[in-house]
Amino acid sequence: MQYYPQEESFCRSILEDIIQDMNSRQFKKVPLIWTPLEHDGKNVKEFKKIIEQKYGIKLGGYEDLHKWSIENLCEFWTEFWDFLGIISSRRFNQVRL
C-alpha cells in the first residue's frame, strides 16, 4: 500500500473540523435514570435482597449478583427495570447480547 502524506493531512483536517464542531454544539442535558443515594452500596444490597426473596436464592455478594445477572438476563433486566421505576409507553420484549 502506498503512503500519501496529503491524505493524512486531509483526514487530520477533517477530524479537527469535526472536533471543533462537536465542541461548539450545545448538547441537551437529560436527567439521569438513577444515581446511588449513598456510597455504601445500599441500593445494590436492596436490589440483591429483592432478587433473593423473589427467586428463592442466596447471593453472597456483588460477584454472585453479577453472575446471576449474566445467567438470567431476562429476569435480571425485568427486575432492574422495575427496581429503577422506569416508565415507558411499552415494556421491553427481549434482551439482546
Automatic annotation (TrEMBL):
MF annotations from Gene Ontology: acetoacetate-CoA ligase activity
PANTHER family: ACETOACETYL-COA SYNTHETASE (PTHR42921:SF1)
Descriptive protein name: Acetoacetyl-CoA synthetase
Organism: Trichonephila inaurata madagascariensis
Name of the gene this protein is made from: NCL1_53665
